[in-house]
Amino acid sequence: MPEAQSTTSALRKRGARNRTLTLSDGDRLRLENRVLSPRDVRRGQKDLVVHGECAALAARMKPGSVDLLVLDPPYNLSKRFGSSSFSASSPEVYAAWFETTLRELLPLLHARSSVYVFCDWRNSGDVHGVLRRHLKVQSRITFEREKGRGSRKRWKNTSEDIWFATASEDYPFYVDQVMIRRQVLAPYTKDGLARGWIETQSGPLRDTYPGNLWNDITIPFWSMPENTEHPTQKPEKLMARIILASSRPGDLVLDPFAGSGTTGVVARKLGRHFVLGEKEREYCLLAARRLELAEQDSRIQGYEDGVFWERNSGRVRARFKSTQ
Ligand SMILES: C[S@@+](CC[C@H](N)C(=O)[O-])C[C@H]1O[C@@H](n2cnc3c(N)ncnc32)[C@H](O)[C@@H]1O
Fold first, then answer.
1. How far apart are CA 60 and CA 191, in angstroms?
2. Is residue 230 part of a domain?
3. How many CB atoms are located within 10 Å of the residue 117 CB?
4. CA 36 to CA 231: how far, in whole Å?
5. Using a 6 Å CB cutoff, which residues line ligand 1?
6. Which pLDDT band, with edges at 50, 70 and 90, does 13 fall under?
7. Is residue 188 part of a domain?
8. Which end of the chain has the lower number of beta carbons within 10 A, N or C?
């Protein structure tokens, strides 16, 4: 990410409807002491943003304390993250790096912990191979990302994977917390009675179980208030689905590759504790700013009244609310 612009210069250059969150010098000064270094972390401390390497943070945390581990590490691509960059390597070298990282984090889990790992199609198989050796793999989720560079040589990539694994076969999964509210196009009735749908003025709606193909996710872009300049920021709606399905209020969620802090922001909005680690100081400050804003506004775009709505369902949603 280029050096974040001050709010004034950013506003001068960008359109009026651009809601991308940037840091002012005042924000940086104010938030400085909300970012800890790993050596300041006391065992059992929660709700932290830690500036440092994943390994250094893992070494300071209490073993067995993490209920949900979210891993969104750099994929095996050459990419700049602020002042540093990640270099693509062979699949074997990437898998070895990921395995070393995972081993450092495993002692923090307990028997009922869950783990989610983000990856793309190129490294998904390698990530799966590593996870199978250490955890119980439960699902592979694929989410659609509409943004994508067109290619004349191969199919444009418009998806990413998330592996869901657990420490044992005895794990929580709160599926009733992550139902998806859809319009019923072909209402099913039995003996003239509606089956599993709610009759509303916007037509029949139905709460359905979420599958492992997520096509209702919008990657943050400039007109969304959650958008930042982090190059690989994940959507709050996506993180909410993970956190709601695999943790309860009061649980501890760890994300040691936190970037702009999406995991911690959503954890806070949903009443979970969190520990965020990130090696780029500017991103730590951005995460701290987002956490500050989350205290004032706990809305999550696309998740309302305890259900997830399909993408572009604004009109149906509004009509549904007006009739409640
Ligand atoms: C894919 S991004 C995470 C994006 C994040 N999920 C979000 O929503 O903003 C990966 C992040 O890991 C950070 N990173 C890379 N290597 C790291 C390491 N060894 N320890 C901690 N952070 C690291 C990068 O600076 C980058 O911000």
1. 61
2. yes
3. 25
4. 23
5. 53-54, 72-74, 81, 230, 232-234, 256-260, 262, 277-280, 283
6. low
7. no
8. C
